[in-house]
Amino acid sequence: MKYARLGIAIAAAFASLSSASALANTVKIDGSSTVFPITEVLAEDFSRANKGKMKVTVGISGTGGGFKKFCRGELDIADASRPIRKTEMEDCKKVGIQFIEVPVAQDALTVVINPKNTWATTLSVDDLKKMWSPDAQGKVKSWKQVNAAFPDTPLALYGPGADSGTFDYFTEAINGKAKASRGDFTASEDDNVLVQGVQRDVGGLGYFGYAYYYENKDKLTAVAIAPKAGAKGVLPAEETVLNGTYTPLARPLFIYVNVKSLERPEVNAFLDYAMKNFAAAAKETKYVALKPAAYEVGKGRIAGKKLGTVFGGGGDTNVTMDFVLDDKNLKN
Question: 110-235: which CATH topology?
Answer without folding.
Answer: D-Maltodextrin-Binding Protein; domain 2 (3.40.190)
